[in-house]
Amino acid sequence: MPRELTTVALVVLGLLDEQPRHPYDVFQTLVERGDDRLVRVTPGAVYHAVERLERDGLVEAVGTERCGNRPERTTYRATAAGHAALRPALTSYLADDRPAYADFPVGLAHAPRLPADEVAAALTQRRGREAARLATLRARCDEVLALGLPRRFLLDGEREVALLEREVAWLDEVLRDLADGTLTWGGPPPDDFLAARQHHRTRTSAPARRPADRSTS
Predict the structure, then answer these.
(1) Which terminus has fewer CB within 10 Å in the chain: N or C?
(2) Where are the residues of the annotated region Disordered (predicted)?
(3) How far apart are CA 172 and CA 51, in angstroms?
(4) Among 26, 174, 173, 33, which Cα is nearest to 112's?
(5) Which pLDDT band holds residue 132 (cuts at 50, 70, 90)?
(6) Is there a contact between 17 and 78 (Cβ–Cβ < 8 Å)?
(7) At 21, is the secondary structure helix, strand, or coil?
(8) Which CATH class is domain 7-94?
(9) Per-residue pLDDT at 1
């Protein structure tokens, strides 16, 4: 049985199922379509994915070509098994049947350990980068839509635009609240909170009382 498809293997297999390609053409197509924002790919990673897919019987070589003095390039296509493997793999990805752990939430969870000005500086840097990504992605989506590409091919970009819009707006709100003091900063959690948490833990961990036996003999 083939191993579970990684994200790189999935996008590579998808392109080879679309039409035969050599690995470097796969890489160029991923970059051209902007799919390198979805998964970290390099030419080496694509070649490695093709080799693994071939070992698993999901793709096969269909020919070689040579351009000038360049090394020969082998063209691959998806096999029937590869075509069949795409459907359950894509369904699993769409249903998000796999946990993902991002770095940013970890930083947010431990941000109170830093001074407010350092937090604001880091979030400002992030806000600028995300706003630039949003502008670039929105422009690319608008461009290909204007050229006639149906919306169904851009759902990933549409979702990312919506998420980036919300994140930039949220970062603006947090930075504004930090600046005007609405978001208080510094010091440990309040004593009232610690006492309330301890009371809650005690109450929820206490064994439930058994009801009195009211039966008569």
Answers:
(1) C
(2) 187-217
(3) 45
(4) 174
(5) very high
(6) yes
(7) strand
(8) mainly alpha
(9) 38
SS3 state at 58: coil
Q: How, if at all, do strands 59-65 and 73-78 pair? A: antiparallel
CA distance 118 to 182: 17
Q: Is the pLDDT of residue 217 over 50?
A: no
Place of tokens 């070649």: 47
**3-state class (DSSP) for residue 209:** coil
Give CA–CA dist 95/78, Å, rounded.
Answer: 24
* Residue that the structure tokens 């049985």 belong to: 1
Give 98 or 28, the one with higher predicted confidence: 28
Q: What is the C-alpha R_g of the chain?
A: 26
- What is the residue extent of each domain of the chain? 7-94, 103-194
- Assigned token pair, 123: 């979030």
**Count of helix runs (H) and strand runs (E) in the chain:** 8, 2
The answer, yes or no, to whether residue 214 has pLDDT greater than 80, is no
Which runs of E-coded beta strand occur in 38-104? 59-65, 73-78
Which pLDDT does position 67 carry in this prediction? 67
Relative orientation angle of helices 23-33 and 43-55, to the nearest 10 degrees: 120
pTM of the full structure: 0.73
What is the spatial distance between Cα 73 and Cα 51, in angstroms, rounded to a whole number?
13
